[in-house]
Specification:
- The protein folds into two domains: 5-52, no CATH class; 55-129, no CATH class.
- Helix content is 78%, strand content 0%.
- The chain contains five helices and no strands.
- It has helices at residues 5-19, 27-42, 54-91, 96-111, 114-129.
- The chain is elongated, with a radius of gyration of 28 Å.
- The protein starts with a helix and ends with a helix.
Length: 130
């Protein structure tokens, strides 16, 4: 059977005191207990198996930021490619519908609005099919 929330907090506190070699009887330890209580209360919904790890949280945030930045860079690259394709398509007499679809995709990438492209492509396809 698992530990109750109170037992889990006490276990975490005990681990921390052992880690920092603190005695629960001195004044310094009482202040530390208050700090640990606040931290444990804030993080009780976090990892229930161990002590809250701020480094892991920072690492996760950095990974998310990196993923967002990569998607942004990919969108910029794709928009640049589409711009070139549109220019070449105009020079080569490509169909206006194809050029319009590429322009809409480019706008969608630059604004981050995927729905705009999907709706325009669907409507354009239905008009071309008529």
């Amino acid at each position: 059977m698992g530990m109750s929330e109170k037992e889990l907090k006490e276990s975490k506190k005990s681990k921390i005191f052992k880690l920092f070699d603190l005695d629960s009887q001195d004044d310094k330890s009482e202040n530390m207990q208050d700090i640990f209580d606040k931290l444990l209360d804030e993080r009780s919904t976090e990892d229930a198996r161990g002590i809250y790890n701020p480094v892991a949280s920072l690492r996760e945030a950095e990974e998310k930021q990196t993923a967002v930045w990569k998607a942004y860079q990919d969108a910029i690259h794709k928009a640049g490619t589409l711009t070139s394709e549109i220019t070449k398509g105009i020079q080569n007499g490509e169909k206006p519908e194809v050029l319009l679809l590429k322009a809409v995709e480019c706008i969608s990438l630059m604004t981050g609005d995927k729905v705009f492209y999907e709706n325009a492509a669907r409507k354009l396809a239905s008009k071309v099919a008529r």
